[in-house]
Amino acid sequence: MSLSLFIQSARPLLEEGMQRALQEYAPEQDTQxxxxxxxxxxxxxxxxxxxxxxxxxRPILLLLCCAASGDDWKKALPAAYAVEFLHNFSLIHDDxxxxxxxxxxxxxxxxxxxIAQAINAGDFLxxxxxxxxxxxxELSPEMAAQAMHLFDSAAIRLTRGxxxxxxxxxxxxxxxxxxxxxxxxxxxxxxxxxxxTGALIAGALHDVxxxxxxxxxxxGLAFQVQDDWLGIWGDETVTGKxxxxxxxxxxxxxxxxxxxxxGGRFAERWRRGGIMPSEVPHLADLLAEEGAKEYTERKAxxxxxxxxxxxxxxxxxxxxxxxxxxxxxxxxxxxS
Length: 336
Known about the structure:
Shape: globular
Helix content: over 70%
CATH class: Mainly Alpha
CATH topology: Farnesyl Diphosphate Synthase
Order of helices and strands: HHHHHEEHHHHHHHHHHHH
Structural class: mainly alpha
Number of helices: 17
Strand content: under 5%
Number of strands: 2
Number of domains: 1
CATH architecture: Orthogonal Bundle
């Protein structure tokens, strides 16, 4: 089973199930509420379709980890809906916090309907995610309670990570230790939750679930480190990610923090502020000269290796494991 074949099987069920869940609590006659939510999820409005929906990475991970634990992945679909709704709640609020006008090539919800209604849309998806997770009780009330604990713990850590991300933008001194705490919450915790929950639903033993959790967490860290690399040295015509934005907005990414802690020429210019677009190529060169590029690449490689090692320990089904390895390399191999 290749990753592409698995996605072909799972993706229609994901989209259909999530649309049913949304329509149950936001029927189409509630026109604006339904439209806001369906628009953000990529099901309605100009540009709706697969590109507007995104890759659905988190639910696919959850389903594959259930399959890799040796069980029928379809039984995990309610949890897959839940993690995707939770992720999209965070995206709506993140767009407000970052003053982002576009996501996936379309106007963000807050830009189109206003901040107040976008907050309502995010809150709706947060609550809907819990209603989906509760449906696991039909399989096992005890397992559902454990899954809900994992889910809510991940939501707390996700919110804390986002808080730290915003805090660090305005904070002068941020250490590399601070960075790992922030990205662990903002990016890695939800992926870890997806992987452990998939294994939990499959009835995997505690040690196996922990290895799946560590697989997801280290994958999340590797993904974020690679994203930081792309934010400075990536080819935006290939990735769609601006190579100016991170340096222009003052984001405390891994290469930036590495160089700031070195205290060299990059740090001297960065701390004066007011970076102009014309300076970005020179600053990227300074980062590379001071070792930040090599350091970031090395950390990404270390995290990828750790993630693969944990997956080898955890996975029972070889075909699902291979699909997970494909996903890992797809997520962390976006070097240009």
